[in-house]
Structures are given as C-alpha cells and as structure tokens.
Design goal:
heterodimer; A: 261 residues; alpha/beta; Transcription Regulator spoIIAA; Pectate Lyase C-like; 6 helices; 17 strands; 30% strand; elongated; disordered C terminus; B: 264 residues; 8-stranded mixed beta sheet; 8 strands
Chain lengths: 261, 264
C-alpha cells in the first residue's frame, strides 16, 4: 500500500504513481491521500498521474482530474498504457508522453464504420492484414506486417513499408515532406500516391518481381528494386549514388505510368 | 434531361452489379451518354466489374460532401468513351450519404447525361432508400428462385409505396433446360407472382463470371447470350421495341431438331 499514490520526481516532472491500483476505488483513495498529505507542496504545480494498465471509465478519469484540480494543481497530465484510456486522454489533450511512448504507440487499423479518427505518433506498426474498407492513417510513417488488400487505404505523412503484398491504395508523404517512399515485398498497388504525385498500376499485371521501392523523381513516381543492403555497400565503397538514368530505367522496366498517361 | 434508372433487387447476389454494368455499357455502346453510379457505399463492386478500380481518386461521398466537383469524380471508361463511372467510397458506410444528397448529385448529372444508372446495394435499408430517391425508373433484378422472388416482391411493394413505380423486371440466370424440366421457376411463374412488366430475361452464362473477373462487361466482349440479352434490355429502356428472345433456343443442333419436331 505504501507504494500506491507515491510521489515521484522524474525527468518529465512530478508523477503521482497510481499504476499499482486494482481499480478506480483504490486509485481514487490513494490519490486523495496523496493530495491531502502533500497538498501544500503540490499546490500550483504541474503534476502527471500515472495510471499504468488501469482501465477506467471516462467519468472515473474525470473524477480523478477533478480531485486534482480541487487540490489546486495548476495542470494535470495522464500517463497510461491502456489503449482506450490513452485515446480518451489524447482527445482531452492531457495525454503525457512516455519514454517508451513510441513503442507503445501502435498505428491502429481503423474500421471507419465502427471507430472515429485515431491519431498515433511517429512510426505506426500494423501487425495484421489490412482488408478492403480498412483505412490506416498516421502522421508519421507506417509499417505493415502483413498484406494490404485491394480496397484498403493506407495514408501516411511519411513513408510506408509493407512486409507483405501491397495491392490496395497507398498515399505516402501527405505531410509534404520530400523523400517519402513506399516499399513492399510485392508492390502491386491499385493506386500509388506520393506527395502530390499519383500513379496507377499498369493494366497488364506482372508478377514474380522481388521487393520494390517507389519514390518521387522529378514529377513522376518511379519504381526500383528494393535492395537497401546493396546500396549501402555501394556508398561504403565511395561510388556515386544511383543516377537519374537508373531511375528512369526502373520506371520503364516496371511500367508504372504517371497518372493520366 | 437525363433519366435516372435504379437497379435493385432486395436479395443479394442475384446480379444487380452485373446488370448495372452491362446495361450502362450497352446503352453507351448504342450511342447514349451514360453514367453508372455505384450506390453500394462500403462494399463497392461496380468499379471492379467495369475494370476501373485503379483510376479512382474521388468518389460519390466526396462529391456529396463537397470535397470535389462531380466532374472530378467521374471516370471515363477506357473502352467506351460515352460511358462514365461515379464510384462509391469503400472506407465509409451507407450512413455517409443521405437521400437528398443523392438526388442533388443526380440532378447535376442529368444535365450532361442521357442515362444515369444507379447500382443499389442489397437490402431494403438506408442504402436502398438512397439509391431509390433519385430514380425515374426502377429495374428489379431477380433470379428464378423462390427466395429471390420473395425479396423482389417486397421491393416492388416498397418502390410502389415510394411512388417510384411501376418497376420493370429483369429475370437473371435463367436455365432454360431446368425450366423445361419444371425444376426451375419459369418467367411466367415469376411474373405471375410479381405482376410487373418484364424488361428482359438473361440466360445463365459462364462468360459472366469471366467478364466480371476481367473487368470487361459482357456486352463489350463479343456475342455471348447474356450479353445479347443485356443489349436488348438497354434497347428496350431507350424505347426501342425488341421481341423477347426464346431462351429455350440455345442454338445447338439438338434444340433445333427438337423445335423442328415440335413444329410438325
């Protein structure tokens, strides 16, 4: 019991640790105890409450926040490992970043029919097949461990990497950052958009190619073999980076047409 | 001023999308300016059957919600220049569109197109009502099965209640030899139950599956019996009188002999 409600000083400020509590009742009691014992010390300061894996209802979270405000705390943040609570706190604008936040922040497959917009930070991981009608959105990069089926949609501010077969529609680089790429073990998208460029697959399906990478070169999307190891080797030897000609060759070989051609 | 033709069925899987694609393609091939609208938001198929999936940038919901102009969302068919597609959204659901929005989009299209063919989703819920709202003419597709006819009957009633009747009937996937043996409902049986005007009968044809998979409507692809039936349906919709094809005549030598003997 002594641990519960303990006040910790961390690099991100003062943290009231409620992560060991079993439920709202216990967390609430521990919070009240800490606030009454250390009220004078905490008054006017910025405090984060750590809820750990605890799953609370929205009204319960609001009750905890209300207690904190009632005790005169200037600002309250929330730390949580609970996916649902994180999104609630995020919506309230009080979700506090964790050191391991990037690892915890998974891109969520959003079935647009059942759930509202979701936001994740930096790199989002989708360890599932993304099926028709699913839409995955992330302001950063997106990694898919699985296939992206026709009718599915991946929208990323940065790059998209698919460890599987990409057959759906992908829009990478929506944030306007140049250098966004789309990689897949098998790149057969219905449609490919990078930044403000758009391309569709050739009408005649080709198969049996290896991993490929699509990127913007000039005003067209070009597709090359995806062999990062090979490139690293070349750079280490001090040779020139692949020339523009190589990109054009890649495009001709692959035949992804710029939109409208 | 264009006509809005809504293709619906009640039951799923009877060939609404195939009928929509082929009727639209046939009308376009006959020289009319046609747009096919996919009303099946969230489960779109018309783009696949027409082979235009990879050209979609904007969709019907984008138009209705004002994210683009209707012209920007239209996709011109790669083979028939008079045919256009207005695709559905795949990442939204039926609630994304209200009937009055559909009416508004169709009214914009009426100015530029002679025919606006709307592919309705299965069922009799919101999506069906959205597809029904702009209709000047409703075409009900059924197969000669009791369950499909039962659902079609329900839809006939709903269409009449919405004052969009009388609907026209397309009987799809008729197997002439089974009808002859009495193992399948014949067109007369279906009509007796539904008592609406018959627009056409389409024979069961394996080429339909192939054409759907290839994204090439049957009417664009040579002389298949089902393609011929859809072409006739399109002609009838544009006011041309075409006699009903006798489906028991499959063109084989055996059927000719049978007919010859019967005529004696």
């Amino acid at each position: 019991m002594s641990e519960l409600g303990r006040l910790k000083g961390t690099s991100s400020g003062l943290v009231i640790d409620l992560s060991a509590s079993d439920g709202f009742q216990e967390a609430h009691e521990a919070l009240l105890r800490t606030l009454s014992e250390r009220g004078a010390f905490l008054s006017g300061s910025r405090v984060v409450i750590d809820l750990g894996q605890l799953s609370l209802m929205v009204v319960e979270l609001e009750a905890l926040l209300e207690e904190c405000r009632g005790a005169g705390l200037a600002e309250v943040g929330v730390l949580s490992h609970n996916e649902r609570l994180r999104s609630v706190a995020r919506a309230m604008g009080i979700l506090h970043g964790l050191e391991d936040d990037r690892a915890a922040g998974q891109a969520i497959v959003r079935d647009t029919i059942t759930s509202p917009d979701m936001e994740v930070n930096e790199c989002g991981l989708v360890a599932a097949t993304v099926r028709s009608g699913h839409s995955v959105w992330n302001p950063g990069n997106i990694i898919v461990l699985g296939d992206v089926n026709p009718g599915a949609e991946i929208v990323a501010g940065g790059s998209v990497i698919v460890w599987g077969t990409l057959r759906g529609t992908v829009h990478a680089g929506t944030s306007g950052a140049s250098g966004a790429v789309v990689c897949a073990l098998c790149l057969e998208p219905t449609q490919l958009r990078i930044g403000d460029q758009i391309a569709r697959a050739p009408d005649e399906p080709a198969s049996g190619r290896g991993p490929e990478m699509a990127r913007v070169s000039g005003s067209a999307i070009v597709v090359d073999e995806w062999s990062p190891g090979h490139r690293r080797g070349r750079r280490a030897e001090g040779r020139e980076a692949p020339s523009g000609l190589r990109s054009v060759l890649g495009r001709v070989r692959r035949g992804v047409k710029p939109w409208g051609e | 001023m264009g006509r809005v033709i809504t293709v619906t069925s009640g039951k799923g899987g009877v060939g609404k999308t195939t009928a929509t694609a082929n009727i639209a393609a046939a009308l376009a091939a006959q020289g009319h300016k046609v747009v096919a609208i996919d009303g099946d938001i969230g489960l779109r198929n018309l783009d696949v059957v027409l082979g235009l999936e990879n050209r979609i940038v904007f969709d019907l919901v984008d138009v209705a919600e004002g994210r683009c102009r209707v012209r920007q969302a239209l996709i011109r068919d790669k083979r028939t220049p008079e045919l256009f597609l207005l695709p559905a959204s795949q990442t939204r659901d039926k609630d994304a569109l209200r009937p009055e929005q559909m009416v508004e989009v169709c009214d914009q299209l009426r100015e530029d197109f002679e025919f606006i063919v709307v592919d309705s989703p299965a069922g009799i819920e919101g999506g069906f009502r959205v597809a029904l709202a702009p209709a000047d003419q409703v075409v009900i597709v059924t197969t000669p099965e009791v369950s499909a006819v039962r659902d079609a009957d329900r839809v006939v009633g709903l269409v009449e209640a919405a004052e969009k009747g009388p609907a026209l009937l397309v009987i799809n996937r008729v197997k002439a030899n089974m009808v002859r043996r009495g193992d399948m409902l014949g067109p007369e049986d279906v009509q007796e139950i539904l008592s609406i005007e018959l627009l056409g009968m389409v024979p069961e044809d394996e080429a339909v599956v192939v054409s759907s998979n290839r994204g090439l409507p049957l009417v664009m692809d040579g002389a298949h019996p089902a393609g011929k039936a859809f072409s006739d349906i399109a002609l009838r919709l544009s006011g041309v009188e075409v006699p009903m094809t006798d489906l028991s005549d499959d063109g084989s030598i055996w059927s000719r002999i049978v007919r010859f003997v019967r005529q004696r």
